[in-house]
Structures
1.
Amino acid sequence: MTILILGASRGIGLEFTRQYLEAGERVIATARDAAGMQRLTDMGAQALKLDVSNPASISGLSWQLDGEKIDIALYVAGIYTTEGALSPPTQQQFDQVMHTNVLGAMQAIPQVAPWVEEAKGIFAFITSGMGQISTVESSFGWTYRVSKAALNMAVVAAQPDYPKATFIALCPGWVQTDMGGTGAPLTVEASVGAMRHTLSRVTPKDKAKFLHHDGRPYASW
Ligand code: NDP
């Protein structure tokens, strides 16, 4: 299989790269700086330079993937904020989060999805349960919540335009990474292992679903 991982320099994206390479798959993985790209190349991945918050950077993706059949594409890049509704985000904070978590995905979809369709593959977007509207009880991580809810909408809305691909929104759980912190219950190895298992069982019937890392569907968005 050919796996594309957007945002693979650290954390969940790096672990997806490691596990898929270990399983013998071909991995194309992106990082936004030379050190991140070197890390990926040293592991055996094909590294591409990509800053998802920069439309000029994303606009080069399609030709770099020209002719590929991508079985699984993963949009992993993301940034986090903790502030709630008592302290509104600055425009700069808002733009940074929305550009990375939402605009980047919306820009990546037309660049990448046609190559996923070539393989009748899966395009998975790493979202968060914090973006689930129906269960929210607190504004903690307000801007991040808004960005992941918007990402979920982008995924579901785009699905009909790419009928040969299966788009899913996938939550990794709360994971021990730079973002998740050391108090998180899931190791990055366990979260990614579970998500790989889930991805191996995804079929076209799962189009536009919102899934937990272990494959359980969310009851609502
Ligand atoms: P980390 O903070 O460990 O890693 C974030 C990754 O995103 C890094 O590879 C980083 O690259 C990349 N990234 C950030 N901004 C950009 C950008 N503009 N262009 C390209 N890459 C970028 O986070 P995690 O691995 O924990 O998170 C991965 C995904 O999982 C995120 O979407 C996050 O929202 C989601 N998630 C994580 C949870 C957790 O508990 N950890 C829970 C729920 C969801 P760089 O090294 O260059 O900064």
2.
Amino acid sequence: MSATAELKSSGLEGMIAGKTAICAVNQTSLIYRGYEIADLAENATFEEVAFLLLVGHKPSESELKAFSKELASQRAIPGAVIDYLRTAGPWLKSGSAVPMDVLRTAVSMLGNMDPNSQAVSPEADLEKAKTLTAQIPTIIGHMQNVIDGREIVKPDESLSHAANLLYMITGEKPSDEHARVIDVSLILYAEHDYNASTFSSRVIAATLSDIHGAVTGAIAALKGPLHGGANEAAMEMLREIRSDIGKDNDPKKIQDWMHQAFADKRKLMGFGHRVYKNGDHRAGILHKLGRQLAEKATDDSLAWFELGEEVQKIMETEKNIYPNVDFPCGLTYFTMGIPVPQYTPIFVAARITGWAAHIIEQHANNRLIRPIAEYVGPELKKWNDG
Ligand code: CMC
């Protein structure tokens, strides 16, 4: 066997790497602390789901009111972080940094300024988790304001978490429908057991490192296009298809493009999943909402969705590979006019709750995570033997 073949990783596929009471990812269901995702997407708000994940139970009316008020009142970020976002403006414009990189550094800076930064008790983690959940949308919004050359849009405490996020990015109060679609996307993105970024955050937390450090690492893991970065990559792929074949969504041209991609052994972004082999049920929920928005928007918005649907049909019928949540997410955020490089940061604005819940769970019952590797390198030899 060649050395490369011997090093091919199993990616820990199918391995149980620990226990959790937060989330169950199954072929046919996704459950957050006992509640199915379709139920939550239909009936809960992001604030309710954030409480459920972080605190561990469905909030009472008074708990929800206090929690939502606390989140809304903690949205402002320190001046030093705003100065950093302004400093990063030219890097973002030149492309030497992307918003996920800048968000990662800003979160790390917030840790430096938190007087309780070193504490790892579940109580301290929860307080810091709430602050991070409140502040991450502000970092995203201010960063986009800097990119657009707009005055910094201050957070609006009267708006829900989702509506405020959109408001800070665009400077315009969103419609109820847009706010609800973002809200649902945040619910769908909030948690997903031992995915790569959450597992990274648990590995970091398990050394008894702090929550800001664990979240900084998780953001780095989420950025990659095989994970959260796929929502941006999926939309970029659709843009590439349109630029290659034109706007008219000719099925033959789409099919030719796809066949060429198959021949080139390309990974089609927003498709496939390590666990879900018969489809990601989050994808159907978001596709439906996004398509409804596109139908009410412009003919072109609908044309983008129709292009996506054609690509999806070919992937399903010819490869038996289904879209994951990132595929309809890209199309939905595009319909809403959100800049593509902010799609994965918005994923962070949701997944912070899942990461924090796992970091709290890890710190509360900790043992160092330290697997072993099978050595396949050279035989033992002497340094002085030549
Ligand atoms: N496009 C083309 N072929 C694919 C794709 C795809 N998106 N996904 C899987 N395949 C093929 C793969 O080439 C392999 O074929 P073969 O057996 O002939 O080599 C087969 O399907 C099995 O795939 P795999 O690579 O063993 O699957 P994996 O579990 O290692 O990878 C994945 C899962 C999500 C990394 C992969 O499906 C992928 O790269 N997808 C595109 C990126 C993406 O959409 N990522 C988002 C993941 S889910 C949500 C999130 O985390 O944000």
3.
Amino acid sequence: MATNRTFTMIKPDATGAGHTGAILDKIIKAGFSIKAMKYTRLSAERAGQFYAVHKERPFYSDLVDYMSGGTIVAAILEKNNAVEDFRTLIGATNPEEAAEGTIRKLFATSIAANAVHGSDSDENAQIEGSFFFSDLEKF
Ligand code: CMP
């Protein structure tokens, strides 16, 4: 995947609360184009694989339950400087620390149920995008 791309998920708390449209609107208005998008649900096994890097963290099992507990929207986004600009758009992991106007400040309810995921590097954007879209070269 090109370095002007990032990967996002709209998480079950946000889809369940009806924020999917508003979040996608903010993403598009911030200048990102959606290259691929999937409205789906993760099994506990797949959620565990996606977050395997957090396996030793105390919140891992709750994270897996939460991420497999409802619908998610997975998407690949394109924009110059996509990874960094998207992390600015979504705000800090903990919504209490997120800047005003960011997606997490507006829509997240807690550090665990924090509305959206955004890749933290070009390398992870590639890995995470491939996790959901096996035919990335087509997009
Ligand atoms: P995300 O950016 O998707 O990456 C890891 C996720 O783990 C994070 O968003 C949160 O949903 C969750 N997480 C991170 N830190 C904590 C924490 N201290 N307590 C509970 N969940 C957390």
4.
Amino acid sequence: MYEDIEQILFDEVDISNATDDIAQRIDNDYKGKCPVIIGVLKGSFIFLADLVRRLNIDFTVDFIKASSYGERTESTGNVKITSDISTDIKGKDVIVVEDILDTGYTLSYITEYLRGFSPHSIRICTLFDKPGRRIVPIKPDYTGIVTDDLFIVGCGLDYNEKYRGMPYVGVPKKQSKKIKE
Ligand code: XMP
Ligand code: MG
């Protein structure tokens, strides 16, 4: 089914272990609280589903969608919210959940946007982090797996909307300098 994957970097066990780890940390940090967990669409939906099923604390879930436009294959500073949250987060503890943190443009824009609603706190949780690609200095509070500068797919991450359901994470064969989203 996924014969056009060049290399598997992280298998289901790696991803499950990383998710277990984050869930335990969030359970500890939010004991007695009820954070609003905000998934960044579309890429975070698999990780978010895996994560919340491991949590023992109370929480609510919402989603936000952002697009960066301009040059198609690179994230740019021109981020726009294309689908907003429907929860009143004023005074609430917010955890923003992403699939991957790359240049940082998207998450820094989203967190600044959400800060405008005066939440009590905001933390960032990402399944993957590519710190070597960072342009905006933003550090996640919860990181699953730190990875290199390769373009990866699977577990919610796509290339042209493909591979999101792949249970492991790897590099598509077409990986080239041009494929960087
Ligand atoms: P920035 O650069 O704003 O972008 O931190 C984060 C968004 O860029 C996408 N992205 C990827 N998508 N494989 C993907 O499928 C990757 O290796 C990758 N790196 C960045 C992703 O949409 C993320 O939300
Ligand atoms: Mg994304």
